[in-house]
Every structure is written in C-alpha cells, then in structure tokens.
Specification:
Strand 6 (182-185) and strand 7 form a beta hairpin. The chain folds into 2 domains: 7-81 and 97-179, 3-Layer(aba) Sandwich (Rossmann fold), CATH 3.40.50.620; 185-299 and 338-358, Alpha-Beta Complex (Argininosuccinate synthetase, chain A, domain 2). It has a 5-stranded parallel sheet with strand order 3-2-1-4-5, sandwiched between helices. Strands 10-9-8-13-14 form a 5-stranded antiparallel sheet, with helices on one face. Strands 6-7-12-11 form a 4-stranded antiparallel sheet, with no helix packed on it. Helix content is 40%, strand content 19%. The chain has 13 helices and 14 strands. It is α/β, with parallel strands linked by helices.
Length: 405
C-alpha cells in the first residue's frame, strides 16, 4: 500500500505520538501529509499544534484546526445522554463518543483535499482503532487507513522519544517521562490510563486528577443548582439559557468545584482484554442525575422501563465504535421518541463529590398527588387492589393447587 498512497489526512494532536507519526508517514510513505486537529473542548491551546506541524514541513494550507465543540455537545453528547447511557453500569463514554465526530470531520477534510488515505495514532491494543476505522469506512468504503502502531517497530515510549530526538521533533515537557499517564480530554471528560494504574490494586495518586477538587477539600457548604430541560436536552442552568457546549462547560465548572465526577473502573475493551482507567466527568455526572430526575415524572412506566432495557445495548454500541451503524440509529429513534414530554426542571445539590436530587417539576408531569397521597382521596378505590392482586397471582394459585394433587 505504501507506494499507492499519495495524500493522507492525519488525526493530529501535536503530542509525542502523532508528531512521530507525522514524520514517520513522510519517511515511510513518501506522501503528502495533511494534519487535522479537532477542538472538542479539551482545554488546551491548539496553536502549538499548528506551529509544530509547520516546523515538521507541513504546508500551511495542509493544516486544519476545527472548532467542533458545539457539534460535539449538540449532535453527539446530548443524543447519547437521552439514553442515560452508561457502559458496564459506570462509564459515561467520554472518549467513545468523541471518536465518531473526529472520524466524520477527518473524512470531510480528506474529501476536500482529495486525500486517498487517513491515519490515526490509536494503538493495536485499544478501542480507538476500531472506533476511528469504523467511522472512516462508514463514509468511504474505499478509503485507505494507515495505523502506524500496527506497522512500525516503535513499540515503547523510549523508542518514540529516541525517534523524536533523531529527527529533531520538538517535544514539550509534558510529553516526556515526567508525564506518567495516557490521557484523553474533551468537553465531556478527561481520562487516565497507564503507569501505576496498570495495577488495579493501586489507588490513583491525588496529583493525577486535573479537573476536580478532591471531595475532602471541596467547599464545606453545598451549592444548589437548577437545570432546565426541553424535549430531553438541557437548555439552561440557574435560569440562564446556554448553548449545548457552554452548558456542558458550566456544569463542568460547577461539578469540578465540588469534587463531582471522579471514577475509577476496570472495563472490558472491545478487543478482549480488561483495562483499568480513571475518569473525571463532572458535568456529565450532574447531567445524568438531573435527567433521570426529570424523566421520573414525565415518562410513562412502560416506556421508562423499556428505555432502561435498551440502554446497555446502546451504550455497548457506542463503546465499541458503532455510532454510525444502522442499529444504533434505530435505537436512537426509539429513545428520541420517548423524549417528547421530557421538559421541565430538576434541582440538585452539589456537595463533597455527591449530586443529590432535591426536586423536579414539569408542566407534563405524570405525578398526580390526587392518586399518590396517603391522605383521604376521592379518585382511588383501594378495594380494587384486591382483584388486581388476585388476578396477578392466578398462576401461583393454579400452580399451588396442582402441586398439592
């Protein structure tokens, strides 16, 4: 394939791995390299990535940096949250949901510049290689994909640093041995893997966490916030209407202040092995709690329970990289159908790492105090419950009599 590639679009962060890949592609494939850097709200200045690409010989017109924060929140994070998606009951899918958007944008650039190949920095052990490449092939079944980690012999951090030194690739201090974790950040979360975390018995170091205040050091006074929803999506915080990206950023700030959203799990990767990871998802943790609160009064019991049954399958599809698959779209349509009446507000308390629901209200609420009250009512005949119970127990009654014969 090396001789057939003319132009490749590289998903480029400017870090150690992708900087080495950029140079490696130039050397091994002798092709024109186009870099693409996505701003997903990772909180880093992206201009250094442009400057480094220029230093490595990339033409200015072949360097693309795109602000995808609003699209990420609106078209990827919010639809996923309508499902209340959690992978293996805990993981809020912060990295998983970002990859299909990167793949989509990367393929759009490939089409724009006439590239015949795309490349990524995911390793041959991880989930991201699957997520990226399923995305690429969803848009162009004939695209060539270059995955250097599956081709080269640079199989350690030391070998990458040696390659960088040999080719005068500038590496910031954060990309040297002083940085012990493999991290991925975007508007939804930041993840940590590697080094001491590879022993699941080791507790994460406090210095590892980048976003959130330690719950022990969080404010001693709780903070109460109100989140407004419209047809399943959050639209305002404390009465202030915000864009999707701005709203998620605001919840991140509030949650991080109070130590909300830390997670330490061992998950099952799609390729087969178990992986230990730590995550900070402050805004997403708040949002999930508030969403379930508003759904509790606006969803019918049957659709709420059916939706919860669909959720694990939906979450697994996203985790495994099938965002663009027909079955994910089918499940999304079913989930979105349940959200027509999910409008109203949830009031939650943030305190020492916890999110507690204090109240929920909706003009479309199905909660009817006339039926639910413990006081005297005029709408519910308690004697009706006897027949209801006896009919539901009929099979037990029949079975019990049969066993006595």
């Amino acid at each position: 394939m090396k001789n057939s590639v003319k132009k490749v679009v590289l998903a480029y962060s400017g870090g150690l791995d992708t900087s080495v890949i950029l140079k490696w592609l130039q050397e091994e494939y002798s092709c024109e390299v186009v870099t693409f850097t996505a701003d997903l709200g990772q909180g880093e200045e992206l201009s250094p990535a442009r400057l480094k690409a220029l230093k490595l010989g990339i033409k200015a017109e072949n360097i693309f940096i795109e602000d995808l924060r609003e699209e990420f929140a609106r078209d990827f994070v919010f639809p996923m949250f309508r499902a209340n998606a959690l992978y293996e009951g805990e993981y809020l899918l912060g990295t998983s949901i970002a990859r299909p958007l990167i793949a989509k944008a990367q393929m759009a650039i490939a089409k724009k510049v006439g590239a015949d190949a795309v490349s990524h920095g995911a390793t041959g052990k991880g989930n991201d290689q699957v997520r990226f490449e399923l995305g690429y092939l969803s848009f162009d079944p004939d695209i060539k994909t270059i995955a250097p980690w599956r081709e080269w012999n640079l199989n350690s951090r030391a070998s990458l640093l040696e390659f960088a030194a040999k080719h005068n690739i500038p590496i910031e201090k954060k990309n040297t041995e002083d940085s012990p974790y493999s991290m991925d950040a975007n508007l939804l979360h930041i993840s940590y893997e590697g080094r001491g975390l590879e022993d699941p018995w080791n507790a994460p170091e406090e210095a590892m966490w980048r976003w959130t205040t330690s719950p022990e050091n969080a404010p001693d006074s709780p903070e109460i916030i109100e989140i407004e929803f419209e047809k399943g999506d959050p639209i305002a915080v404390n009465g202030k209407r915000l864009s999707p990206a701005a709203l998620l950023a605001e919840l991140n700030t509030l949650g991080a202040k109070h130590g909300v959203g830390r997670l330490d799990i061992v998950e099952n990767r799609y390729v087969g092995m178990k992986s230990r990871g730590c995550y900070e998802t402050p805004g997403g943790t708040i949002l999930l709690k508030a969403r379930r609160a508003i759904e509790s009064i606006t969803l019918d019991r049957g659709e709420a329970h059916a939706k919860d049954e669909l959720m694990p399958r939906y979450a697994e599809l996203i985790y495994n990289g099938y965002w663009f698959a027909p079955e994910r779209k089918m499940l999304q349509a079913a989930i979105d159908e349940t959200q027509a009446n999910v409008s109203g507000a949830a009031r939650v308390k943030l305190y020492k790492g916890n999110v507690s629901v204090l109240g929920r209200k909706s003009a479309r609420s199905l909660f009817n105090a006339a039926y639910s009250t413990f006081e005297k009512d005029e709408v519910y005949n308690q004697k009706d419950a006897a027949g209801f119970i006896r009919l539901n127990a009929l099979r037990f009654i029949i079975g019990g009599k049969a066993r006595r014969l």
